[in-house]
Design goal:
alpha/beta, D-Maltodextrin-Binding Protein, domain 2, elongated
Amino acid sequence: MDAFQNLRAFLAVAETRSFTAAARQSGLATSVLTKRVDQLERAVKTRLFVRTTRTVTLTEAGRRWIERVRSLVADFDDTMRQVSDTGQDLEGPIRVKAPTTLTVLYLADILTRFQAVNPKLSMEIVLADRAVNPADEGFDVAIAAFEAAFSDVVDIPLCPLRPMLCASPDYVARRGAPAHPRDLIAHDTLNFAPTGSIWSFNGPQGPTTVEINPRISANDGQVLLRAALAGSGIAQLSEYLTAPRLATGELVPVLESYQLPARWVKMLIPEARMQVARINALAQFLQDAFSPSPPWAAASD
């Protein structure tokens, strides 16, 4: 148990960036917590923190190690809970990675409802618009619309996500509408940076690609939506952003004969976490929230 207490001390200091605050959070004397971190550093034969009179920061070794320690401590705690589980309410922490725009518009409400019906759970929700291996980065669940897959991680699909090209009526009136994807080279384009600047299409004569030189590139869909509404160019946007604006006429579709490949919104869960009751409960709750149709379909009806 001493080793796990030392690991907990390491996590507390890393999260609070203060030995004093970590000790207060852990209900320990600062000297006791400091001793535990010292013991851990001696055991691994490397410094885990850079300590000054004002700050405490992780060393490179500490940064590389922290997510693995989080997972290890979480697995240990879950094992201990399972021994004493008598069918009581779900409890413990859940760490979730989720995409920014989708979370702000829809997932935040779903995750809040899940926590409300499971009040003994705590949730850490990290917004990031990049492919994440949850096993490597210490997440219980990663929600994403990227194609990346990882070993020892289970993919659970939630729904297809159909992107489309659109622009404001004002932009189309000024610049005209492209007739073929290659025409986009002469247009102002608005690009979602994480998916790259090569746009792929399935058209009447088969697949085609075009590399764009975007006028605006951003890692958040709402930024691109605002730019499109302002007439700044042609944007590739997901249907949960475009549907309400198409209905009101604020945006119009572009290149309708050329379909962009659909992606899937999915959950990625480390295999080792699939046996944890609260993680399974969250996975089922999310599947129910996206069935029989995603939440934005109901919002646009």
